[in-house]
Design goal:
- The chain has about 400 residues and is of the alpha+beta class.
- About 40% of the residues lie in helices and about 20% in strands.
- The protein starts with 10 loop residues before the first helix and ends with a strand.
Length: about 400
């Protein structure tokens, strides 16, 4: 059985639990859970192709209280969202639940049951300081919080951070319906700043670095572009599909397995068969993967200038080759935000698309002496609170007994 330390409950989640579900019966087991947001520092759409990523947990999180209810259902009250209830009698994917929190509950229950646990009903109250739809992986945080709650309430073996990340990814892929890689979940479950190698998808290699960007004279800012990812789900899904189409044409499953020299030799044939965008996205993958390695070396060396230079190259590659900044047409919220950030930075710092792209957020590394003015200017253009400073958090997803 997994062992958990004891502690106090997050006040907001505890108040929501009492308001939504009452005090509960005597002897009902209860736990608190916490799971952070994440920022992709380097590696834009490289994880699903077996490449390298740098990602960090952030000082924004989902906080919750979970309490056994003696029923065969999971009931979830989430601040600012409608309550929901999921029966544990059938844990197979439900098409009508696609891209809903109910799908994540059902998927995580299925995955935790696969560790030898017996699912049992509980109530869960969640509060969050992660902007919804802002590209900070609030869905991965919810998955991890659910997983830690189920791990704690249902007797079974301890679930290691990378194993929890993989269960969360499966829930998001199969139940929620988003073909994400493993980076989001791994960053949320591991905590801190990590360099990840996904060549072995079943056992990614990770290494950590204790780093505060302020020590480099930089503030990490994420700017909400004012558009949720949801309208661009199909555009997002096309990125890994097109990359893997290139790999399959060359007899492989992922781009990390492809011989780049063979890719170069067969480019005219591949272009006739696949068109231009697939090939551009493959070009981005190899370029971005190399930039991850170089940026990690710059961070380890505490070389802020080199890090910023490489970050600008990464942003250009995503915009020109990966093309996950805009889906075209008049509505281009991420490209607009990038244009504003470039204007405000005026050649200092660096900015790039963040995470999956299209909607969500952009990432900016801003010199500390200009950070206040930068945030004020971006808020003036995009709305109060659009630009927010974050710090790397050492805490990954966790649960503790109440």
């Amino acid at each position: 059985m997994a062992a958990f330390a004891s502690g106090t409950a997050p006040a907001g989640a505890l108040a929501l639990m009492r308001a939504a579900f009452g005090e509960g019966g005597p002897g009902r087991r209860a736990v608190a859970v916490s799971a952070p947001a994440r920022s992709e520092v380097a590696g834009n759409h490289t994880d699903h192709e077996g490449g390298h990523v740098i990602a960090g947990a952030l000082d924004a999180s989902v906080e919750g209280v979970a309490r056994a209810n003696g029923l065969g259902v999971v009931r979830v009250a989430s601040e600012g969202f409608p309550s929901l209830e999921v029966s544990l009698d059938d844990l197979d994917p439900v098409p009508a639940e696609r891209v809903t929190t109910a799908a994540l509950v059902r998927g995580m229950a299925h995955e935790l049951a696969a560790t030898g646990r017996e699912p049992a009903g509980f109530d869960l109250a969640l509060t969050s300081t992660i902007p919804a739809g802002g590209g900070l992986s609030s869905s991965a945080a919810v998955e991890a919080a659910l997983g830690r709650a189920m791990e704690a309430l249902w007797d079974g073996p301890q679930v290691a951070p990378v194993e929890l990340a993989r269960t969360s990814q499966r829930a998001e892929n199969r139940w929620f319906g988003k073909p994400c890689g493993l980076m989001d979940q791994a960053a949320v479950c591991l905590g801190g700043l990590s360099h990840m190698d996904f060549a072995d998808a079943a056992a990614p290699r990770t290494e950590s670095l204790a780093l505060d960007f302020a020590s480099l004279g930089l503030e990490l800012c994420l700017v909400d572009v004012g558009c949720d990812h949801a309208p661009f789900t199909d555009d997002y899904a096309a990125v890994p599909e097109e990359m893997q189409r290139v790999a399959r044409e060359l007899g492989r499953e992922r781009l990390c397995e492809v011989d780049q020299a063979e890719f170069d030799r067969r480019l005219p044939e591949l272009r006739r068969r696949l068109g231009d965008r697939c090939l551009l996205r493959a070009i981005h993958y190899w370029r971005e993967d190399a930039l991850v390695e170089a940026r990690w070396e710059a961070l380890v060396a505490r070389d802020a200038g080199r890090f910023l230079e490489l970050t600008r190259e990464s942003g250009a590659s995503s915009g020109m080759f990966l093309q996950n900044v805009s889906a075209g047409g008049a509505f281009q919220p991420a490209m607009y935000a990038l244009g504003l950030a470039e204007r405000a930075l005026a050649g200092r710092g660096a900015c790039r698309i963040h995470g999956g792209g299209f909607g969500g957020s952009i990432q900016c590394f801003v010199p500390l002496d200009e950070a206040d003015a930068f945030r004020a200017r971006m808020d003036g253009w995009l709305g109060e609170g659009a630009c927010r400073a974050y710090r790397i958090s050492g805490e990954g997803a966790r649960a503790w007994e109440l």
